[in-house]
Design a protein that fits this description.
binds NADP nicotinamide-adenine-dinucleotide phosphate, nine-stranded mixed sheet, alpha/beta
């Protein structure tokens, strides 16, 4: 049977109290050992997908550097097409295939700026990217597996729409606190436990002082 959308693995490093960044947006939770593990995982997928806030705050490369293997296609969800030409993503888009997913509200001047770079621009949704439509487009481009690397807002978008198949979370040995710190899943949240899916624990890896939990949905 042909899958109707790509297989999606949500991956993140969280503090013991469930935060993915501090109130000042510091997200340096990964250990060296964990970095090697998730770079190996990146090398196995067709695409990595993140939200525009993660790009603006962390300025990530989203490449495979601490393991051997190919770089996946990078997909940035950026409804208004505001990604900075100074970002590492744009600076490296001539070497690494990159898709900027925008919505119909993206101003023409932003799109004109992006058109100067070797990027693929995918338009879906009126005011924000229509994730289901985007996934259908990515599927048609032979993208079969996607690593969803956050942040919390995007994680909620995919979780509540039932678009996540696996969850791999490293519990880092820190307690961060703060009601304004970003959690693994933001958004409005489910009102009842029974509305959220009961996940199946597939594997636990102990990495010295931290654990990696692997769940199926
Ligand atoms: N520890 C970790 O593993 C980890 C991993 C990743 C990120 N982080 C941290 O997470 C924080 C960022 O998380 P965040 O929650 O603020 O932002 P985010 O999830 O990275 O990005 C959210 C943005 O994506 C855009 N977007 C486009 N289409 C969307 C859709 N259909 N649904 C939802 N969002 C859509 C929206 O902006 P537009 O409307 O402008 O498009 C939205 O505000 C950073 O501090 C980063 O360091 C931590």
């Amino acid at each position: 049977m042909v899958a109707s959308r790509p297989h999606i693995i949500l991956s993140a490093a969280v503090s013991l109290d469930g935060k993915i960044a501090t109130k000042n947006r510091d997200s340096a939770l990964s250990s060296g050992q964990d970095r090697i593990r998730f770079h190996k995982l990146r090398a196995k997928v067709d695409a990595i997908l993140v939200g525009i806030n993660t790009v603006k705050i962390d300025d990530p490369l989203l490449t495979v550097r601490y393991a051997k293997g190919k770089n996946p296609i990078r997909v940035i969800l950026d409804s208004s097409g505001t990604i900075s030409p100074k970002s590492k993503i744009i600076k490296t888009c001539n070497a690494i295939p990159t898709i900027i997913a925008v919505s119909k509200k993206a101003p023409k001047k932003n799109l004109a700026l992006l058109a100067k770079y070797p990027l693929q621009i995918v338009v879906s949704g009126q005011n924000k990217v229509d994730t289901k439509k985007l996934l259908r487009i990515l599927q048609k481009q032979n993208i079969k597996t996607i690593l969803l690397e956050g942040g919390g807002t995007l994680n909620w978008e995919f979780i509540h729409k039932g678009l996540v198949d696996e969850l791999i979370v490293t519990i880092a040995p820190y307690v961060v606190g703060g009601k304004d710190a970003t959690t693994l899943v933001e958004g409005s949240g489910f009102s009842k436990i029974t509305t959220s899916s009961k996940l199946k624990l597939r594997n636990i890896i102990r990495q010295k002082n931290e654990v990696v939990l692997h769940y199926y949905i």
